[in-house]
């Protein structure tokens, strides 16, 4: 699934044909691990040695140079066209790399800086969306009777509006299914971790000393009966039913955060990429249900946990059958 999400995401980030370059996709999948492992390693050093450790004892610098080799020539060619034709030219790319190039100033126009931005956005996009979609796919494969309602909805809106943003927005059942999968599993049992920069006392008297880490207990909250009826039961149409109530049309969309639904965080620092992620996941799920019948060989495997992280069983297998 990381390969699929990598290709889908980079169709928007850097466009064709680079989004289909296997080595480039593997770089972006690996870059996240490079950064996470590198950060853990750097944390073992005293502050004055951290820059040295990051430069010489992690694989991140090599990954960045690998990224420059992949995207550098594309950036150079586009700069040549921008200088030759101005702001617009025939077949000008409409992707994130070009958006960045159109607005970058000063040092941000340098090839390495643009490559760093693309690698960073991939860092945020690939593993999170892969994790979320795999959870949903396994649940659907274990309950194939839920395919038909989503298939009928997706086929209807696509036949009328095509594969467009408008069509994606009208896929309420698909939206509800994916949101319920995030409610049940999400990326982990805690979220919105913050470092207290100074001593702080909450309104209920809870005291947080400077230097403490504070998180929201996403897992327990998402399965709390106070907020969700039959909270421990997966209800694929939970949120579409809520949206049908008067005045609730937009409140329970996948991208809508609240103090009771925090897979994307909440407040000022809620995930800014959640709109892209939701459209991507909905388009992928719609494509699956329109084109395939799926099922598991056996029961739904329990998600795995490591520290606070929740992730699908990596050994689980889904059977696909192309529809006639």
UniProtKB/TrEMBL annotation:
Source domain of life: Eukaryota
Keywords assigned by UniProt, alphabetized: Heme, Iron, Metal-binding, Monooxygenase, Oxidoreductase
GO molecular function: heme binding; iron ion binding; monooxygenase activity; oxidoreductase activity, acting on paired donors, with incorporation or reduction of molecular oxygen
Cofactor: heme
Family membership: Belongs to the cytochrome P450 family.
Protein name (Swiss-Prot/TrEMBL): Cytochrome P450
Record keyword Iron present: yes
Coiled coil segments of this chain: none
Keyword NAD: no
Amino acids binding heme: 271
Organism of derivation: Hermanssonia centrifuga
Residues spanning the membrane: none
Lineage: Eukaryota, Fungi, Dikarya, Basidiomycota, Agaricomycotina
Gene3D superfamilies in the cross-refs: Cytochrome P450
One Pfam family cited in the UniProt record for this chain: p450
């Amino acid at each position: 699934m990381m390969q699929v999400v990598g290709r889908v995401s980079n169709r928007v980030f850097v466009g064709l044909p680079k989004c289909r370059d296997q080595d480039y996709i593997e770089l972006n999948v690996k870059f996240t691990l490079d950064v996470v492992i590198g950060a853990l390693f750097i944390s073992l050093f005293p502050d004055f040695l951290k820059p040295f450790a990051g430069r010489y004892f992690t694989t991140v610098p090599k990954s960045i140079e690998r990224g420059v080799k992949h995207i550098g020539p594309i950036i150079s060619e586009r700069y040549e066209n921008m200088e030759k034709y101005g702001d617009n030219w025939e077949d000008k790319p409409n992707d994130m790399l070009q958006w960045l190039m159109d607005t970058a100033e000063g040092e941000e126009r340098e090839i390495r800086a643009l490559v760093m931005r693309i690698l960073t956005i991939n860092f945020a996009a690939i593993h999170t969306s892969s994790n979320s979609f795999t959870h949903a796919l396994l649940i659907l494969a274990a309950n194939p009777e839920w395919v038909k309602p989503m298939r009928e909805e997706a086929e209807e809106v696509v036949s009328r509006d095509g594969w467009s943003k408008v069509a994606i927005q009208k896929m309420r059942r698909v939206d509800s299914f994916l949101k319920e999968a995030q409610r049940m599993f999400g990326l982990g049992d805690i979220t919105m971790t913050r470092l207290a920069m100074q001593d702080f006392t909450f309104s209920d008297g809870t005291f947080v000393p400077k230097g403490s880490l504070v998180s929201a207990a996403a897992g327990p909250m998402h399965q709390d009966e106070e907020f969700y009826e039959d909270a421990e039961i997966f209800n694929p149409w939970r949120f579409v039913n809520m949206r049908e109530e008067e005045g609730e049309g937009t409140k329970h969309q996948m991208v809508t955060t609240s103090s009771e639904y925090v897979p994307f965080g909440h407040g000022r620092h809620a995930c800014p990429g959640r709109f892209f992620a939701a459209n991507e996941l909905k388009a992928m799920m719609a494509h699956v249900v329109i084109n395939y019948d799926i099922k598991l060989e056996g029961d739904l495997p329990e998600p795995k946990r490591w520290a606070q992280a929740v992730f699908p069983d990596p050994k689980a297998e889904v059977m696909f059958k192309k529809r006639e």
